[in-house]
Design a protein that fits this description.
2 domains; DNA repair protein RecO; about 35% helix; OB fold (Dihydrolipoamide Acetyltransferase, E2P); 3-stranded antiparallel beta sheet; ARFGAP/RecO; single chain; RecO; DNA repair; de novo design (two linked rop proteins); about 20% strand; DNA damage
Length: about 240
């Protein structure tokens, strides 16, 4: 049976002399990788489709039941305005794509997660100026779909990163408090989709990002910091 599904490109790597392996997050089955034949041919017009975070429609035969399939057709279904031309947005996008590669593993459909990814990226691309907080908001809200969204209570002095809950006593493991907790709570109250001005300074963004990465590390087995982190921090210095 042929499957037609929207999908988001997560990564693309060379495979052999003329093909590449493209990893997608699809609306129909979650994570799925395909072999794109002739990807490096000058006549192949699909090369630009496989840029990370591109939104495409795939048609493939699900009867193949292989770890690596060949898709029959791929076409772009969302056209970004400047996600691939703005240096700042490109840096954020590559960081987001690497993070998604690290944390998305499920090979099953999750329509609400796919909708969150798709809609968030479109809003991010559409904003001309107010987008510097996007990666922070995105990673925090992604935890809703990964199963460890923070449970924070007003008035608590500490937030236990390992348990994901507020605490009035000093946690035994990794935690945040004082200024770091205030910034984290401020991020939780942020709605990027309706945001009209950036809320954090450069140093605050770095501090919050460090907290978020520690939080992911505490909840995802074998989590490692993305290689693009250094570039992201450097660009926003």
């Amino acid at each position: 049976m042929l499957v037609r599904t929207p999908a988001i490109v997560l990564s693309s790597h060379k495979y052999g002399d003329s093909a590449r392996i493209v990893k997608f997050y699809t609306a129909s089955v979650g994570i799925k990788s395909f072999i794109a034949k002739g990807a490096y041919s000058k006549k192949n017009r699909q090369n630009s489709l496989f840029i990370p975070l591109n939104q495409v429609e795939l048609i493939y035969d699900d009867r193949q039941k292989k770890s690596l399939d060949f898709f029959r057709e791929a076409k772009q279904i969302a056209h970004y305005k400047d996600l691939s031309s703005s240096p700042f947005k490109m840096t954020i996008a590559l960081f987001i794509a690497e993070m998604l590669n690290l944390v998305l593993q499920e090979e099953e459909a999750n329509q609400s997660l796919f909708a969150f990814l798709s809609e968030s990226l479109l809003v991010f691309d559409d904003k001309e100026d107010v987008f510097s907080d996007f990666h922070l908001w995105f990673l925090l809200n992604l935890t809703k779909y990964l199963g460890f969204y923070p449970n924070i209570q007003n008035g608590a002095k500490y937030f236990d990163l390992q348990e994901g809950i507020s605490s009035h006593e000093i946690p035994t493991g990794s935690y945040i408090a004082q200024d770091d907790l205030i910034l984290f709570e401020k991020l939780m109250n942020l709605n990027f989709l309706t945001q009209t001005e950036n809320q954090f300074s450069k140093s605050q963004r770095n501090s919050i990002l460090n907290t978020i990465l520690k939080y992911y590390e505490a909840h995802i087995f074998d989590f490692r910091h993305p290689k693009s982190l250094e570039v992201l921090v450097h660009v926003f210095e």
